[in-house]
Amino acid sequence: MNDADSGMGEIVRAKGIFRLGEKGILMELASGEFSSQPFGPVDQSKVSIIGKDLRREMIGAALERCVSAEAG
Which of 10, 14, 22, 25 meets the CB 3.0–4.6 Å disulfide criterion with 52? Predict the structure, then answer.
């Protein structure tokens, strides 16, 4: 993904375990390929993003919107 696509910077790799109710889901983005799979119970969501010129504020706001949508 490049800067023109998202405005968040050049995301090279991203990996996260996201809590959805009592279960989790593992999501990965690498080499332009996205994958996801079920994950066992998790206490909290975690994400790691590797890239260039990342705009942390925009990424954080996007993740917050996801949390808000899940809660609502």
Answer: 10
